[in-house]
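Protocol step 4 of 6: structure prediction from sequence.
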Amino acid sequence: MSIPADLKYTKDHEWIKFDGEIATVGITDFAQGELGDIVYVEIDTLDSKIDAEEVFGSVEAVKTVSDLFMPVTGEIIEVNELLEDTPEIVNEDPYGKGWMVKVRCSNLDQSKNLLDHESYDTLLKKG
């Protein structure tokens, strides 16, 4: 299972990559593995301001439906259009082409509340 060192993570298994005030958000390799085959991604929060830890969408898999939680407060400025026709790309490439949204962060200090790759790995090992 992959846990890239250049990303930050949440206890709810989202990842976030910062590029200045713009950040890309997706779900982790662990999350997609637990969900199983993803059949639908619903994100209808484009242009919405979402607070940290609020739901910004959901992922439907063969096994279950799971909410997506925003790692930091910000405005969703882009949704990955590939997910509309090919949601399974999240299973195939969760840290690349399977990203979910891009967000303009309101408070970059919130990144201090996120897990680094080592802390996230420890969280997974604790189960």
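Step 5 (inspection) to follow. The mean pLDDT is 96.
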